[in-house]
Write a structure and sequence with these properties.
With 359 residues, the protein is an alpha+beta fold. It contains 11 helices and 21 strands. InterPro entries: Carb_Metab_Reg_Kinase/Isom, RmlC-like_jellyroll, RmlC_Cupin_sf.
Length: 359
C-alpha cells in the first residue's frame, strides 16, 4: 500500500493548463475527484487503512468500507451508501437527471440509467463472517432485482481468505451449521487461499467466502448490497433477524453454492497478479471490467470509477483540462468527458473500473 504524497507537482505547475473544477457542475465534462463515502457503524471493524490511503485522520474503528462512485444504497436504506459529488449533490441524482451524459447512449439503450457497477475500498480490521451473495436469477425471483452480487477483489495487501466449499455440502448440513453457528465446521469445509498484493480474484455469486483479517482491497461488484450470512456469532449483527435479506434462512440458503470446488477451480478464480497491466478480470466481463494502468495511457469515452493506488499523474481531456491524480484519490469519470490521456508522473498506478459492455 502506498500512502498519498503531500503534494501533486502536476497540479502545482502553472503551465500545465486549466485544472478541473468538479464543484461547478453536476454535468461535468471532466473526471470528478470524490470525497470519502464511508457508511458508519458497520458490523465488523476496519477503516484505518482507508484513512491512511486517503491521507485522512482515523475517525472510527467501524468504517471499513468506502463506497466509491456509488449509486447503490445499503440494503433497506433510502440513501445511505450513495456517493456525494464535491458540492453535495448525489451522483445517483445527477445520473438519473442525465443518464446519457454520464453513461453514454449505448449503455443507456441497453441498461437504462443503471450504472451497473459498485466499487468499494474494503479494509478488514477483522475476519469477516462466512457469507454468500445471490445470483441474478435468485435476486430476480425473490427480491425483484435485476442484479445479484458477483464480486471481485483487487488486493492492496496480502491476506488469507476462505473461498468455496472443498467438498459437497448437503442442504441439511449447511442448515445445521448455520442454526448452531458451527463456525469451525464451516471454515473447515472451505478452501483457504493466500491472496497477495496485486492479485485480482473473481468471486461468483453464490460462492461462500470470508475475507481474512488484514485484507485491504478494491472491490468491484454488481450494484447491490445483498449478503446472506452463514455466520454471525461474535459480530455486531443480529443474524437471525438481519442475515437473510428478509427471506428467512430456509429460503436464503438456497442461494448458496454447496458444490465442492477443486483446488484448481479455486486457483482459477485468481485471474491476475501484481505483474498484470490491462484487463484484470476477464472471467467477470459479464458483470464489470477492471484494468490496471501503469504509465501513460489513452482512454476511450466511458463511464468509469478510478482508484489511484500509487504515485502521481494527470488525466488530460481533449480541451486541455487537467485532473490531478495522486495515490489515495478516487474519481468518477462521466462518458461525456470523452477521450482522456493518462500522463504518468512518479510511479503512477491506478485501477479503472467500468460497467460491462452493453449486450
Amino acid at each position: 500500500m502506498t500512502t498519498r504524497p503531500a503534494a501533486d507537482p502536476t497540479a502545482a505547475d502553472p503551465t500545465a493548463g486549466p485544472t478541473a473544477d468538479a464543484s461547478a457542475d453536476v454535468r461535468p465534462t471532466h473526471p470528478v475527484t470524490l470525497p470519502a463515502n464511508q457508511p458508519p457503524e458497520r458490523f465488523y471493524r476496519g477503516g484505518a487503512r482507508i484513512a491512511e490511503f486517503r491521507g485522512e485522520p482515523v475517525t472510527s474503528e467501524r468504517v471499513p468500507e468506502d463506497w466509491v462512485g456509488s449509486t447503490t444504497t445499503l440494503f433497506g436504506e433510502p440513501t445511505l451508501g450513495l456517493s456525494p459529488l464535491p458540492r453535495g449533490d448525489l451522483l445517483a441524482d445527477a445520473v438519473a437527471a442525465d443518464p446519457v451524459h454520464w453513461l453514454g447512449a449505448e449503455h443507456v439503450a441497453a441498461s437504462g440509467p443503471d450504472t451497473a457497477l459498485l466499487v468499494k475500498l474494503l479494509d478488514a480490521g477483522e475476519r469477516l463472517p462466512v457469507h454468500a451473495h445471490p445470483d441474478v436469477p435468485f435476486a430476480g425471483e425473490h427480491l425483484g432485482l435485476a442484479h445479484g452480487k458477483t464480486e471481485a477483489w483487487i488486493a492492496l495487501a496480502d491476506a488469507d481468505v476462505h473461498l468455496a466449499f472443498a467438498r459437497d455440502v448437503t442442504a441439511d448440513e449447511l442448515d445445521r451449521w448455520v442454526a448452531t453457528q458451527d463456525t469451525a465446521a464451516m471454515l473447515g469445509a472451505m478452501h483457504r487461499l493466500h491472496v497477495r498484493t496485486g492479485d485480482a480474484v473473481l468471486v461468483p455469486a453464490g460462492l461462500p467466502h470470508a475475507i481474512g483479517a488484514g485484507a485491504f482491497v478494491v472491490e468491484l461488484q454488481e450494484p447491490t448490497d445483498l449478503s446472506i450470512l452463514l455466520e454471525w456469532d461474535g459480530f455486531a449483527i443480529d443474524g437471525p433477524r438481519d442475515g437473510h435479506l428478509g427471506l428467512g434462512h430456509a429460503t436464503a440458503l438456497r442461494a448458496v453454492d454447496r458444490r465442492g470446488w477443486s483446488s484448481d477451480e479455486v486457483a482459477g478464480l485468481v485471474q491476475a497478479d501484481a505483474s498484470t497491466v490491462g484487463s484484470l478480470l476477464p472471467g467477470g466481463a459479464a458483470f464489470f471490467r477492471a484494468d490496471r494502468v501503469r504509465g501513460d495511457d489513452r482512454w476511450e469515452p466511458s463511464f468509469a470509477v478510478v482508484v489511484v493506488t500509487a504515485g502521481t499523474g494527470t488525466l488530460v481531456a481533449a480541451d486541455g483540462t487537467r485532473t490531478p491524480l495522486r495515490a489515495g484519490a478516487t474519481l468518477v469519470v462521466p462518458h461525456a468527458a470523452g477521450s482522456l490521456d493518462v500522463v504518468a508522473g512518479a510511479d503512477l498506478e491506478l485501477v479503472r473500473c467500468r460497467p460491462p459492455l452493453p449486450a
